[in-house]
Amino acid sequence: MKKIFLVMLLVLGLILTGCGADNSSSSTGSSDQEQNKSTQKTADTKQAEDPAAFYKGKVINWIVPYGPGGGYDTYTRMLAPYLEKYTGATVVVKNVPGAGSLVGVNQLFETKDDGLTIGITNNVGLISSTLAKAEGVNFDLKKFTWLGRIVADAKVVSVSKDFSIDEGKNLKTLGRPFKVGATGKGASNYLDAVVVKEVSGVPMDIVTGFGGSSEIDLSIARGELDATCGSYSSRLSLVKSGDQKMFLLISGEIPDQITSLKDMAINDEALKILKAYDGMLSSGRSVAAPPGVPEVRANFLKDAFKKAMEDPEAIAQFEKAKRDIGYASGDEVKAMVMDALDAPQKFVDLLKESIS
Q: Which domain holds residue 344?
């Protein structure tokens, strides 16, 4: 009888131990569940919040990765009051120059993802630095929260008023190398010319060593060169004066009806090179927030940026200051950046060769 009693006590002890373990496990599980619920609740709160109420009275820091007084700084300071108008926040412009804009852009990338910091970007330079794997690039352009584009210049080839070929598509009938002037390696007009040569397959002599575009234009007027490359806006005055003619569209959109380089591409690889270059150029001067900004805040900022860019008073001020603008949405900018970063190795090689 005593043995039976001891056995029953042992069994009862094991049952109670098991129950205790179950209660402990249940307690731990409950703790984990509560933590997960708390994390989810925080995320849900950010998504469910009223973004207008969140931004009202807040301060948005706008990083300019260059010093005061330049083009990027001017665009930012002209647009800031209109972003304030449509966000309800105060916009504070902060100049963070250094390393060709890399210092400021790195800071933007690494800052808190609360939607209270944005920055203007030179995407041509940033994409070039990324593809060339330049030192100091500590950001991933694919991960930024893109709000939209302020402006991007179309790129063209302009020729002498007396140039014998009337349209770019007939350039291969010239019977000699096409002489194009550029200031030198590292200059944008040099890379423009290299891309035109590679994509079209047209025999070209890229002549360098000029002190600037005015020297190139003088050489074109003398008949020493056939053409040069540049932004549409920079070529327009010479075309209007009758000294040069718009000849070939490299990238972007313009009102003139001229041959597009895309229509002269010699093969699929050439088209891929042009697509990458077009993505790089078209993304232009854009505005971004750090990665991970809550979607509801990101969408609010995108909408506010669009309204600021399309505000009639802002447009009038840009026109008065003779500053071109060309809005594109954040999604469009992201697509342009992705196209550029998906560049074929041949384009990367051309880029490295052109800036070395």
A: 51-152+283-355
